[in-house]
Amino acid sequence: MSGMRILLVSEDIPHPKLGGLGKHAVALGNALIAAGHQVDLFGNNHWPYEDQAGDVAFQGRFFPALNVKHAHWKEKQLGFFNYYRRAFLARRFARAILKVADRYDVIHYHGHLPIVANYIPAHVNFVQTRHDQGSDCLTHTRFRNGDVCRETDPRVCAGCATAHPNLIQRTLSAASVRRWRAAVKQAFVRHKVIFVSRFLRDNLARALGPLNGTQSHVVHNFIDRRVLAAALAGSDGRPAKPDIFIAARVDVAKGVGVFLAALEGRLPPGRRVTVAGDGPDLDHLRQRFAGNWVEFLGWTPYSVVVRLTQGARVAVVPSVWEEPFGQTTLEALILGRPVLTLARGGTPELKAYEQYLGQLSLFDNMKALVEALPDTVERPVAGLAEEVAGDVRACLAEVEAVYRHGRSQ
User: How far apart are CA 113 and CA 307, in angstroms?
Assistant: First the structure.
């Protein structure tokens, strides 16, 4: 299959600190171009694209076509979730797409507004990939009060819009969540949808009910091996040999603080933790865990993170929320590192990407993970294989199959 005209769409691109969703979309676009397709990218008009090339640059044409400005509607200040704010932005994105839809054979959306599909005519070959839990949770994470949220009652969701909702805020948030979930279910029936893990697809049944009648597919998340190889070929003069290495956003859901608290006082002499990443909890954790046993690097360029990961004695992914898939975990596996993480969300599915038996160690809780650290077998650093499972080129045929899987009904 070659020569398709494809439009990728993502409001997360460009960004000075491109996240996993954005990297996924760029990796896919570049692989499609290399496979002979014509690929353009619609991104946001907020960040200047020419300043954001970074480590993962898109190789096709970019258009800042998605207007993301003035779309918050003071939701945080008012203290309730507002469905119509999201519908307004979804319509705005759909209008931008429809202006050029007839120029493309397929439109592929990667973003946080699955209801965009409801504003795209059924005859348009429209696909979206769902990367997070925003299909039923308006915070995108299903995580609250430091733990996984398993609530399905929309009235409970008001507590994530504001800490102490009053009756009006609770009523308005609940109505918006109900409306959102119904609209998302309608979107999945109207147009094709890809989930980055079986967990992410199956987990929706709690709130949306069975996805019967939907055009849903599962294509695991992936990385771009060529980007990893380019990063490993570079050097910034810093020895890339950390002991226990964590690459994560430093917030509650990513579990860095929980891991360090469980490890404090238990780390054998001479062992050391290195944390690459920034986030709202960084300053607090720097003060809380001051000492020579842990180093916080702060925000770190992706190419440096790759080199640190490959050189690490062990990679720890301490997320306490349910990761939809876990791109950081996949990267560490592909780079040959032993990985310790919790058996939550889509992470157990990554067992399929082990390069050797037992490379990915899964634990029920953080205490068990910490207790297993001293027993981790040190593995020699190996070169990056020419072909690896989890590379975008190994997954490309699955995505192309979804593109040609009939037209949306």
Answer: 34
The enclosing H or E element of 229 equals helix 225-233
What global pTM score does this model have? 0.94
Per-residue buried b or exposed e for 149-159, using 16+ beta carbons within 10 Å of the residue's own CB? beeeebeebbb
For the stretch 202-243, pLDDT in tens is 999 999 999 888 889 999 999 999 999 999 988 766 567 899
Which tens digit of pLDDT belongs to each residue from 283-329? 999 999 988 899 999 999 899 999 999 999 999 999 999 999 999 99
Length of the chain measured in residues: 409
For 31, 119, 133, 141, 345, the CA distances from 148, given in Å and listed in that order, are 35, 32, 12, 9, 10
- Round to whole Å and give the CA distance between 40 and 5: 8
- DSSP letter, residue 167: H
Is the distance from CB of 361 to CB of 339 less than 8 angstroms? yes
Please give the structure tokens belonging to residue 179.
Answer: 């409306």
The residues, any chain, with a CB within 8 Å of residue 335's CB and separated by 6 or more, are 228, 306, 309, 310, 384
Spatial CB neighbours of 130, under 8 Å, sequence gap ≥ 6: 114, 193, 194, 195, 196, 200, 201, 324
Strand-pair partners of 83: none
Which two structure tokens, joined as six digits, stand for 87?
Answer: 């519908």
Residues 308 and 276 sit within 8 Å (Cβ to Cβ) = yes
| Residue the block writes with tokens 């299903």 | 142
Distance in angstroms (rounded) separating the CA atoms of residues 193 and 215? 6
What 3-state class would DSSP assign to 199? helix
